């Protein structure tokens, strides 16, 4: 899936040290690792709706070794990123209350950071959330909405969503925190921005130079992931769920993969999917996109979509594309994204419902009783 020249799609020169999350030049060096001019640190700009988890993300990035600054004025970002002495990546929290904030100003800043010598050295991470959940979070914390201090919370949410609509469309990474407790959001950030392994030059997957790819699996019963650029329906393939010996397994296991790939339609489907992605990736890279999420879905998100995601990710890696793979429903089943660890997190994880009379255990979360076919 490389370029027509046959070269692998290496996405440019290394941006930093291979030890930890540091993205600046190594100690004692002058200039960049490739001998060119130092371009300053890589930055993640964290924006989104109030109450969607921006502060949680900033703290999580700081724990990963980023130099984190919340509510940073837009007018000072250029000077900060031009600092050649910086040795750590930056995490900058941007919100509508930030001094000098405007949607047009943030859009102009992104255009500058994505062009010229520093192209590809900034990522915009946008946090979204369902309006009803945002309203509940404000109610639980007894805070006023920053854009409606003298009005109801719903008015502030609507006002801010309208103000940030254009910025959301420009996001490199979109995370919907509607069903996420704070610890689950921290785990998601760690998955995306913790330093990658050997061969990655110490860069996290979502900070790889050029186009970083994520292949994910999901269940249609829970909806298409909010950050998906392309969603592919795998439900036409034969379903291992109906085989008793395979029902409790998942698409990472050889027996399930063999069952799915033995479907007479699978090989043709996979080759055509491969051809589509081979066409899209270079085109998106040339357009300046830095993050691409391919989502594969089936009924339960355990068998067919997982198998296809694993095989597609393996092929992309073999062809030189920096690729991560994530399985939303398997992660949920493992308990990581949804198990509450505090009363506040429990309240955020629960669906909106009338408060029952009497005392309620805030640690309790009803089990997922959704029945029927999975896979």
| Bulk shape | globular
Q: Unreliable runs, pLDDT <50, ≥5 residues?
A: 1-39, 197-202, 337-371
Secondary-structure element series: EHEHEHEHHEHEEHHEHEHH
Oligomer: single chain
The secondary-structure class comes to alpha/beta
* Helix content estimate: 25-40%
- Characterize the biggest β-sheet: 5 strands, parallel
Distance between the termini: 29 Å
- Strand order in space, largest sheet: 2-3-1-4-5
Q: What is the CA-based Rg, rounded?
A: 22 Å
- Number of DSSP helical runs: 11
Averaged pLDDT, please? 75
Can you give a write-up of this model?
By secondary structure, the protein is α/β, with parallel strands linked by helices. The chain contains eleven helices and nine strands. It has a five-stranded parallel sheet with strand order 2-3-1-4-5, sandwiched between helices. α1 crosses α6 and α4 packs across α5. It is globular. The two termini are 29 Å apart. Residues 1-39, 197-202 and 337-371 have low confidence and may be disordered.
Describe the structure using short key phrases.
four-stranded parallel beta sheet, 33% helix, globular, five-stranded parallel beta sheet, 375 residues, alpha/beta, disordered N terminus, 11 helices
